[in-house]
Amino acid sequence: MTMGTRVYLARLAGLPVFDPNGDRVGRVRDAVVRLRTTNRPPQVVGLVAEMALRRRIFLPIGRVTSMDAEGVVLASGSLNLRRFEKRPNELLLVEDLLDRRVTVVPDDGDGPGTTGAVVDIGVELNRNNEYLVTKVAVREHTGRLARRGHVFQAEFDRVRGLIGPTDTQGTSNLLALLEQMKPADMANALQDLPDARRNEVAAALSDRTLADVLEELPEHDQVEILVRLDRERAADVLERMDPDDAADLLGELPKAEQAVLLDLMEPEEAAPVRQLMNYRPGTAGSVMTSEPVILTPDTTVAEALARIREPELSPVVAAQVFVARAPSATPSGKYLGMVHFQRLLREPPSSILGGIIDTDLEPLRPETSLAEIIKQMATYDLVAMPVVDSSRRLVGAVTVDDVLDHSLPRDWRDRDLREPEADEVRL
């Protein structure tokens, strides 16, 4: 096994997993540590890897031929795709040990010891080819909000509180790992945590990050996390969600709670959400985004390209601009047409949008059914369609991700319900 004598497990989280041919087959999400009945240190028995469709499986440590800063490489053979389930005598580094409050006793055992939070776990390969926990990296607790304690390493047998029940597990190091992930992957990681831990970690995320993660979670998890926040914080998070996603989430709450949260939101943020909640489910109005890119006909191509390059825009929203008379917020002035970003790339920067708009596509109405939207998008190979009201004002746009989200079963994000039966793949 081409690995160093000591490996730090937290550094493996997020690294790619490769088959023997060098093709990526997944990504490391955690490490599995097995407790032993004697006083011997716990043993690393495998890794948890995230494969296609966000399925998490167990990789026995014996199947790993190398692991370093570039990733983990597996040996050839059959790979069991059964979803990983933790056994009673096992712990997960990220889920169970990271951020756990521990006490490191002095070498001579004399004195109160040093308290801190677990930052990483060091394991070493012994003569029996077993990876055993030998080192614990701990960040010292200083008791001062403005000062972070230094990180030091301690022998496993000097650490108290690492194994067993705890109600003193923090979130800082776990958050550092999660924030390296995309929102969809972060949402998947949260689903693996116990409810109390998941709610604690979610509450520690920034409003922007939590909003992005909520949009990727099953509805029952969205509701569970939102109702655990205080109402002012919940309103702040809703403000940072896309209005259509915020409307969907609020629709899962009791009417009285909807009213309270909408009243706590800033009026300009609550207005589009209120409007979306008025549309009948299964129609263009109920699935559209009320914040597409809207520009006036005198806008230049250069200005339009600068607008769609803004990082906060999702790729599907930035794929086209909609052209309308002022005002440029929904409901806009009279809708004139749309321009795909590829057309923008082919035109001189000084050209104005009014001269290059596509007027052939008939816009949707808010009451257009989802089935009709799907048919039109498939017929014309579209990623977005405009939605106008009876006065031909642009009120929103239906994007392909909106259509997919509302066409799939309501519980499609719930990993437990959508994972296929166990199978094997040959590497």
UniProtKB/TrEMBL annotation:
Record's keyword annotation contains Lipid biosynthesis: no
PROSITE patterns tied to this protein: CBS
Molecular function terms, GO-annotated: magnesium ion transmembrane transporter activity
GO CC field: membrane
Alphabetized CDD domains for the sequence: CBS_pair_Mg_transporter
Residues annotated as domain CBS: 288-356, 357-415
Superkingdom per UniProt: Bacteria
Keywords: CBS domain, Cell projection, Cilium, Flagellum
UniProt-recorded name of the protein: Flagellar motility protein MotE (MotC chaperone)
Species the sequence originates in: Paractinoplanes abujensis
